[in-house]
Amino acid sequence: MRILMWVLPWLLPSLAWAETQVNIVGLFQGKAIMVINGGKPRTLAVGEVSPEGIRLVAASSDRAVIEVDGLKRELGMGQALALPSKEPAASGSVTLYADSTGHHFVDGHINGAALRFLVDTGASAVVLNSGDAKYARIDYKRGIPVSVQTANGVANAYKVVINQVRLNGLVLSQVDGLVMEGGSPAVVLLGMSALNRMEMKRDGIALTLTKKY
């Protein structure tokens, strides 16, 4: 196993994260350790995908092959790569408009997977069904199993921590979530574990969410 325990961030251009920086800091058979956007080192096994959408295709003691948006790149130990991002740079704010029923829906992402959200102040956490959780690469059965009361009776669920929730330019990390077994809810409920970390301002049918932390 070869591991590079230091990184030289001053050799890289400063960014507002309109692009994704990937540094390979450790390599061994079947796995790679990488630093993404200056964060903590993260280990990916072959086939795994990071929340930023970076998939590790192959890894050996001297190289890693990653795939982003269908394009494969090969990196050696200590090499860095700047990848253009299709998602907007984080602005910390998003404005939603109510539909004819008064509900606020928004298209967003969980761990890079595109999903539909409904603002729900009655939900204690970000709630999604098990199919959406699998789509967002959440291994929810490693979470804490709980029973929850629904309109249709008691249902099985799992408490989890979601790596990333993105609503256009507003990004939250490490958000408490709840995964329900089955196909309900049909959309992701944006509950209070996320909303408590935002300032909510209403102006007619407009709802502006601004990140606090």
TrEMBL record:
Record's signal peptide: 1-18
Keywords recorded for this protein, A-Z: Signal
Matching InterPro entries: Clan_AA_Asp_peptidase_C, Peptidase_aspartic_dom_sf, Retropepsin-like_bacterial
Protein name: TIGR02281 family clan AA aspartic protease
Organism: Methylobacillus flagellatus (strain ATCC 51484 / DSM 6875 / VKM B-1610 / KT)
Residue ranges of the TM segments: none
Recorded coiled-coil stretches: none
Organism ancestry: Bacteria, Pseudomonadati, Pseudomonadota, Betaproteobacteria, Nitrosomonadales
Organism superkingdom: Bacteria
A family per Pfam: gag-asp_proteas
